[in-house]
Amino acid sequence: MPLLLTALAVGIAVIIASGGRLSRLAEIQLRGGFLLVAAMALQVALMLHLLPADQRALHGAVHLLSYGLSGTFVIANIHVPGLPLLGLGGLLNLLPIAANGGVMPASRMALERAGMVAVPADFSNSAALDSSRLSLLGDTFALPASWPFANVFSVGDILIVAGAIWGLWRVCGTHPLPRSLRPLAELRAHPDFLRLWGGQAVSHFGDWVFALTVATSLAGQDDPTRALAVLLVLQVAPAAVVGLLGAPLVDRFPRRRLMIVADLVRAVAVGSLVLAGTPSIVHLGIASVSLGAMGSLFQPSFSASLPNLVPRERLVAANSLVSATFHLAVMVGPMVGAIMALRLGSAVAFGVNAATFGFSALLVWSARVPDSPAAVVASRPLTALREGLSYSWRTPLVRGVLSVTCLAMLASAVRSPVELTFVQSVLGRSVATLGLLGGAWGAGMVAGSIVAPAAAKRWAREQVLTVSVAVVGLAVIAASQASALGIVVVLWIIAGVGNASGAIAYETLLQERTPDAVRGRVMGASEAIMEGSYLAGIFLAGWLAPVAGPRAMFGISGLGFVTAGLVSALVIGRKARQTVPMPESAQSRAEAARSPAVSR
Question: Which CATH superfamily does the domain covering 180-599 fall into?
Answer without folding.
Answer: MFS general substrate transporter like domains (1.20.1250.20)
